[in-house]
Amino acid sequence: MFKKEEQKYNIISYTSDENSTLKEILLDKLNFSVRSLSKMKREQTVLVNGKFKKPSTNIEKGDLIEVKIEEDMANFTPEDLNLDIIYDDFDLIMVNKPPFMVVHPTKSHSDNTIANGVTDYIIKKNEKVKIRFVNRLDMNTSGLVIVAKNAYAHHTLSTDMSEDKVDKKYITVVKGMVKDDFGTINAPIYRQTEDSIKRIVDERGQESVTHYKVIERLNDATVLEVKLETGRTHQIRVHMNHIGHGIIGDELYGYVDEDLINRQALHAYSLEFEQPRTKEKLKFKAQVPEDMKKLIEKLR
């Protein structure tokens, strides 16, 4: 079992609640890969009651297993970006991303990214962490981004995400009056060419499921809460366009009026999932940003 008070960002601690082998616990209880076991053995980073042991070692109930997490930091330039960090523990950081900020450096956006800001934050905390992103948002989408502090947390959360164990909700403002109070869009999303940015609904695509409910109907617009069952690139944007209610401000799929808003009115506002180690239920909400609040007021 994971005891919360024993956990650190650079050591995973687990107290055995049964007789087993160290290998079985590392694979079945801690979700490590067979490949990572070889590395632990080679670098002697797994301890039982304070001493290095091989994976074949027999473990008794009550034994303390500790796995050292020793990784070099990713090569992101630290920048003080005054990020809105709403949660931080030994496994993850939750950031409320503003619009117009990229999550990860690219050729066209090499700085002022979430990665740069989080790197600055962890250096100032005197932590040596290789950050990995569990989810990503488009530059012009605001809201919650999960940053994993180690490979274990990233693997566990990414698996949960792919198995639909992470509850993801968005707020968006779309063009037109959505007729039904609730609805589900089940339409496969396809990328036509390797270098194409735009996605389309096409039977050749990946299964994609989006649920929505009406929050408020405005003047020729509707505020929706959207829940993702799958996580395809541009999924909400493509699906809203598909049902004839493109997102206001979305240059690629929606309805653009810069007098209303100068980016897509899409905000990742709610995430619920289990903490990777302790399995504690974590719930986060990020307030709707000012530009979307102003948009809703204008449309009222």
Strand content: 25-35%
Order of helices and strands: EEHHEEEEEEHEEHEEEEEEHEEH
Distance between the termini: 52 Å
Instruction: Flag low-confidence runs.
Output: none
Q: Give the helix proportion (percent range).
A: 10-25%
Silhouette: elongated
The biggest sheet amounts to: 10 strands, mixed
Protein structure class: alpha+beta
Instruction: Please work out how many helical segments DSSP would assign.
Output: 6
Topology summary:
Blueprint: E1 11-15, E2 20-21, H1 22-29, H2 34-43, E3 46-48, E4 51-52, E5 58-59, E6 64-68, E7 84-88, E8 92-97, H3 114-124, E9 132-133, E10 142-148, H4 151-162, E11 167-175, E12 182-186, E13 189-191, E14 199-201, E15 209-217, E16 221-228, H5 235-242, E17 266-274, E18 281-285, H6 290-299
Parallel strand pairs: 10-17
Antiparallel strand pairs: 1-6, 2-5, 3-4, 3-6, 7-8, 8-10, 9-10, 11-16, 11-17, 12-15, 13-14, 15-16, 17-18
3D architecture notes:
There is one protein chain. The chain is α+β, with helices and mostly antiparallel strands. It contains 6 helices and 18 strands. The strands form 4 sheets. Strands 7, 8, 9, 10, 11, 12, 15, 16, 17 and 18 form a 10-stranded mixed sheet that branches. A 4-stranded antiparallel sheet has the order 1-6-3-4, with no helix packed on it. Strands 2-5 form a two-stranded antiparallel sheet. Strand 7 (84-88) and strand 8 form a beta hairpin. It is elongated and about 65 Å long. The protein starts with 10 loop residues before the first strand and ends with a helix. Keywords: Isomerase, RNA-binding.
